[in-house]
Amino acid sequence: MPKILIVAPNWIGDALLAQPLFARLRKKLPGAVIDALAPAWTAPVLRRMPEIDEVVDAPFDHGELALAARWRLGRGLRSRRYDKAIVLPNTFKSALVPFFANIPLRCGFLGEARYGLLNLVHKLDAKRSPLMAERYAQLAEEPGTNAAQPLPQTGLAVGEVNLAAALRRLGLSRAKPVVAFCPGAEYGPSKRWPAPHFAALARKLAAQGYAVWLFGSEKDRAVGEEIAAESEGGATNLCGRTDLASAIDLLSLAEVVVSNDSGLMHVAAGVGRPVVALYGSSSPEHTPPLARSHRIVRTGIECSPCFARECPLGHFKCMKELAPERVMEEIAAVRRAA
Ligand code: SF4
Description:
Blueprint (H helix, E strand, L loop, with lengths): L2 E5 L4 H6 L1 H10 L4 E6 L4 H5 L6 E4 L9 H11 L6 E4 L8 H5 L4 E5 L10 E3 L9 H7 L21 H11 L7 E5 L12 H13 L3 E4 L6 H10 L4 E3 L6 H8 L2 E7 L2 H8 L4 E4 L15 E4 L19 H4 L3 H14 L1
Parallel strand pairs: 1-2, 1-4, 2-3, 4-5, 5-6, 7-8, 7-10, 8-9, 10-11, 11-12
Iron/sulfur cluster (SF4) binds next to helix 12.
């Protein structure tokens, strides 16, 4: 049976968007070994994907070349005798480990002129494959063939033991129905719905009997505190208090997840929860959540999407003018559709 090493994306959201590729490989090659090479910050989501056998640690920082370390890792992987590597990031450095590991077939898009590093090169037709998930899934097929449609349904496994431990450790009750908020966005402030809007939404939901849990990393702890304080007891700040594995498990309990365009938005979709996705400076065209039930909420303002990390016009109307009342309506709509 073939042994495949996938060089996984460096972003949590992209790792989720790659899951249809893994599912397609699993369907085509049921007995194959499919391992993923991934950094520590995306490894927890890959470990929850039933298609992946083993996650191999890629001990490199974002953007770090680390040539000698990549050579050592590649050399160390030679004994595993992989038949094929599929390289998902488009960077030159991401194709080095499979090359150093002497993996005979090394597949991916050309990306940063990876002549020689890759020897099974796919051509990207951005018009025919607008979705990032389709582009990744294309790599399961022969070059020149588009991704098989429809993309397979995928999902993350939930760890029941870890979930129970997280509930206990964080003192969380399941007595009330839960709405989860993901108020962070690693990319920058222009993707973040304002904290006072999240707080106003939390107050409305609390008045209807919901518990609101806030999810995010340590970097989001401060905004989580601000939302919790302004919510007048309506929201519980879990930002920085869960690891990613516990966030996956706890998000699985939410009736609805309200999220900025972020990695956690894709995680929420991965655990099958209805998602209300708030878009400002970015576009849902390429990377919408793969949720069975989701609503995209945006103002459609003329300057959007600008893809800037901070609002270049200073007014930030794309997010400020998305009123909590509108998001409340979208929550009701996504619940009806779920
Ligand atoms: S320029 Fe427009 S789309 Fe970009 S952040 Fe400002 S308001 Fe939003």
